[in-house]
Write a structure and sequence with these properties.
16% strand; three-stranded antiparallel beta sheet; four-stranded antiparallel beta sheet; 11 helices; 12 strands
């Protein structure tokens, strides 16, 4: 049987005829001879759109530390799986249950994968500056972390000529570039609150109560006391302070109970004797000191036989003893009411307590521990952050600092080599160099008032007598 016309189509005044071959079951297209296969028709065709794969959005499922998932553990587990597929890596679960999931990259140990964030230390950075005492002066800017044993962990430091906004911005920009690529940080901001020289000690005490208020109700109560004590000056002072930067009830994210910069101060004090050396000797001495410190802590932690680091284990026992005699009522498998001096609600699924101490410290409070023991499905360790464990501490110090021998550098001609950093040009100030920083009034320092001595004992700075 001959092929019969199957369909007819007209496009741009030209007719296309489609014939169906019954024997061979295929469609043949016959083009009129008047159609020229040329480039003049190319502009009339729509280009093929770019293909968008359904998995493209998977790479944005996990964005940063502290990200919340509305669907809880189930949603996180599904999005983590798709996130790993899209980025091309595998992971393994270290803990996987209905309330708590801990996963790490499968190649973390073998290839030192960077996809583990702050698993070995508290995901906070403490920044501070300390002045150097050598001939050329300068300042040490440092960023320090805190490990599970409540000790400082040096993260980054730099030496600059002075402590000013430009140098701090340069330091923060480099920290942001390092951490943002791993999803560890969204923004680097600093807020310095210095009440010395403005308010008396009683006002400072009331201000600290407001800052440490765990709930909105306690914040409003302490704020009224602060305004009553400080009056109009304190209201003007608080007007331009963003609440989410200094007050617990409004802080976005996890503060892990940290409200001060003491850990960075400890690091500066630890490297204090080195600050009298010149820059190269200071950096070399600090490298060796950190190298030795990491090895000593690596050896020390092998003697521990607890699940948590010793200070955290002692804190856990203390909190459990406090709520030992409290009564607990169950509303559901994960929602309970604890009767202490005041009754509170504990949600084990979302790790929250109405006293808000669990949210503020990222560590179960006494109410939560009483509720966990009442349910009894999981051990209390399942509700504690991984970086508080001895295993996390061991991982933090598993890879020490490698030695940097300088035997080959003795043959470099310091006078002609461009690799040698020359000292800066400085002018020595008059007088005897100061090696101790003058403390402020809030730190216990004493300000000596210079008396006039000419017309009485009044202050020389306010004397109106002609000189």
């Amino acid at each position: 049987m001959d092929a019969q016309p199957y369909a007819r189509c007209t496009y741009m005044d030209e007719t296309f005829m489609f014939f169906l071959d019954v024997k061979h079951s295929f469609i043949d297209i016959v083009l009129p001879s008047s159609i020229v296969d040329g480039p003049e028709y190319l502009g009339h065709y729509r280009p093929e759109p770019t293909r968008i794969y359904l998995t493209n959005e998977w790479q944005g499922f996990i964005k940063h530390v502290g990200q919340k998932f509305e669907g809880g553990a189930l949603e996180f587990r599904q999005k983590l799986t798709k996130y790993a597929i899209e980025l091309g890596f595998t992971f393994k679960f270290k803990r996987n249950n209905a309330q708590r999931i801990i996963a790490e990259c499968a190649k973390r140990e073998s290839e030192h994968c960077k996809w583990h964030g702050f698993q070995s230390c508290i995901p906070l950075l403490f920044v501070d500056a300390a002045h150097l005492k050598n001939k050329y002066k300068g300042y040490l800017l440092c960023a320090t972390r805190k490990n599970g044993n409540q000790e400082f962990f040096p993260f980054a430091f730099v030496i600059v000529d002075s402590e000013n906004n430009a140098n701090w911005k340069w330091f923060f920009d480099h920290l942001y570039n390092i951490l943002s690529t791993q999803g560890r940080i969204e923004n680097v901001r600093a807020l310095y609150i210095n009440l010395s020289g403005y308010f008396v000690d009683k006002v400072v005490e009331e201000f600290m109560k407001v800052a440490y208020s765990p709930t909105i109700a306690s914040y409003n109560f302490n704020l009224q006391n602060l305004k009553r004590e400080g009056g109009q000056p304190i209201e003007s002072f608080l007007e331009h302070l963003p609440l989410d930067k200094w007050c617990n009830p409004f802080f976005r994210g996890s503060r892990y109970g940290e409200m001060a910069n003491n850990i960075a101060e400890s690091f500066n004090s630890w490297c204090g004797p080195l600050r009298e050396l010149h820059v190269f000797d200071f950096l070399e001495g600090l490298r060796v000191k950190v190298m030795e410190n990491m090895f000593e802590r690596k050896v020390e932690c092998k003697k521990w036989n607890t699940v948590l680091c010793p200070p955290i284990e002692a804190l856990l026992k203390k909190f459990m003893d406090v709520g030992r005699h409290w009564s607990v009522s169950m509303s559901s498998e994960t929602l309970l009411e604890v009767y202490a001096e005041k009754s509170v609600a504990v949600d084990l699924e979302n790790n929250t307590c109405s006293c808000r101490q669990w949210q503020i410290n990222s560590f179960p409070c006494s109410h939560a521990l009483a509720a966990i023991q009442k349910v009894g499905d999981l051990p209390v360790y399942a509700y504690i952050e991984y970086f508080h464990t001895c295993q996390s501490y061991i991982e933090a110090y598993a890879h020490g600092i490698q030695p940097i021998p300088n035997i080959g550098k003795f043959y470099v001609d310091a006078a002609t080599s461009s690799a040698v950093v020359q000292p800066p040009l400085v002018r020595r100030p008059s007088g005897q160099p100061k090696s101790v920083r003058i403390k402020s009034a809030t730190e216990g320092g004493m300000r000596r008032t210079i008396r006039c001595g000419r017309l009485g004992r009044h202050n020389k700075a306010t004397c109106t007598a002609p000189t």
